[in-house]
Predict the structure.
Amino acid sequence: MSAYSVTEPSTRSKWFAGSLVILYALITMIPLAWIMLTGFKSPSDAISYPPKVVFEPTLEGYVNLFTTRTRQTQEFLDANPPQNWADEIVREYDMVIVGPSKFGERFLNSVIIGFGSTFLSVFLGTLAAYAFSRFKIPLADDLLFFILSTRMMPPIAVAIPIFLMYRNLGLSDTHLGMILLYTAVNISLAVWLLKGFIDEIPREYEEAALIDGYTRFQAFYKVVLPQAATGIASTAIFCLIFAWNEYAFAVLLTSATAQTAPPFIPTIIGVGGLDWPAVAAGATIFLLPVMIFTILLRKHLLRGITFGAVRK
Amino acid sequence: MAEIVIKNVRKEFGDFIAVKESSFTIEDGEFFMLLGPSGCGKTTTLRMIAGLELPTSGEIFLDGEEIGQRPPSERDIAFVFQMFALYPHMNVYKNLSYPLVSQGMPRAQVRAKVDEVATILGIKDILKKPVGGLSGGDRQRVALGRAIVREPKAFMMDEPLGALDAEFREHMAEELRALHDRMGATTVYVTHDQLEAMQMGDKIVVMNNAVVEQFGKPQDIYDMPATMFVADFIGSPSMNFLNFQGKVAKGEELVTLADQTMSVPTLREGASGDLVFGVRPEHINLSDDGAYRGKILATEYLGTTQIITLDTPNGEVKARIASDQLATVGETVGLGFNAKTVTLFDKATGRALRSELNEGVLAHG
């Protein structure tokens, strides 16, 4: 610890930088924290003014999110005592639980479509990036530009043509249709990002594998892929975040069968209007998979953002 | 284990010609050096033998079998890369066993083989380590181990010592040569360092501008260069070129240089026009008398010898003389040339004229 060190920041500036980061993190986390808290509020607490920071937590929002309920007469309620704790909560509103809600199904759709399109984007992206990086492809630069050009306008700008195409092809409101759509949007990002990573892997590794008696594909699979793991992981996160959060196309193209969670959550209706605690509960659960995925791969993500800047 | 014959091999990358029709033979068990400045096509030639590049035309024979267009996995040739190219996601053991696993060798046999090679190279204690943290020398040994473990027909080495620091390089060069002598496997070694080539090679091919300039034993190439390029590239300081105009005929033993008659090895061919009188610095002696005179411009002390730069009627000349011989800058002295070692060149073609000295040695690609 030298006060005159050129490369090492002083203790004071470290504290200052640290406080700034913490402050920024707190500010960005307030909406997130608010959503998570609202999920545990009662409907009246959720909309009270001034907003309540301290309140009595309840699981009402989560119960409403996952169940379908009907209002019953007093006689019926008296004749049928509550079955469990969830039932007890809805009795307050003279209701009984009659079955699960659509949320589980919508959430599953999100998982299938989100992870499906991520897998497909990364799979195709890796193969394409490898080819662009290693082989002499006629018009390679033009092809790469063409691939990138698909992102030069917001995807929603072509919503109408896609809507019509999907209707004619029978892809509307299908899992396959949504997977293909999100893959088409993500593929340019995947190809470009992965090409950068694969360019950085020296060819000698593959050549060594070829010499060691492996085929070109084995060399790709056994030597290049493990080294591109970082790039693949960070590309996968970017693709998943897009596909998972996509709202506009999901509203436009899905309804009964392939609807994902984003268009579903804001439509949860409770007693006398939107059921905000249930919406917040849905949003909280919806956040979890991407959060877990990102935390698992965050080391790679950091390197993914700064790729090219750091040599291995 | 293997004889390699290169026959009229040519390689083009688009418009760029990396190797022009080249032919030479690498005999069984030879330590064979491919020497030349960067960009001369030596590495491309090596990669064609290994199968990492396919020749545009020409043939490559391995033990009499034509392999020019086969994938590397079907050639049974090992390759040591300049930057080693150890698989970074595997430890030392896995790196060494990788070529064996590809052949489907049983696990116990793989273990025994890797153990044996690790013992030879003295890397048994690092088998479990990841390759990332290894020193340059250990990386080099692992790379060599990966090459020798499957007992291939021949080894290709692309400047394998280039990534090591100078001190260690010499040590590894000795180790490498000892390993070769022990295994007796045909080895083809690419280098741009003429000292390394002379020190380690049984035979040398000198390449320049995509062409084979000469191939032969190090001594032959040094004493009897086939072209001015070879004469200039090999040796430090390189061969002196004294330019002169004249005409020489077959059977002649004398040439005239600045009105002085010099003897040369009996010529087997004639030439005229711009000619070059080539003599190595150590084949020049300085004396006070002597008719051919030069003025000393500089002296460079090298311990056992010294290099004297002289201004002569035919241009600047460097002579290597004993360091105890007195030479003062500014003095004019007589130069004597050891006639038996002189090579005459035709300046227009850059080729050496055939004489009793180099007859039978000259081989052009």
Summary: The interface with chain A takes residues 50-52, 71-73, 77-79, 81, 83, 85-89, 98-99, 102-103, 146, 150 of chain B (CB under 8 Å). The two ends of chain B are 25 Å apart (CA to CA). The longest helix of chain B spans residues 166-183.
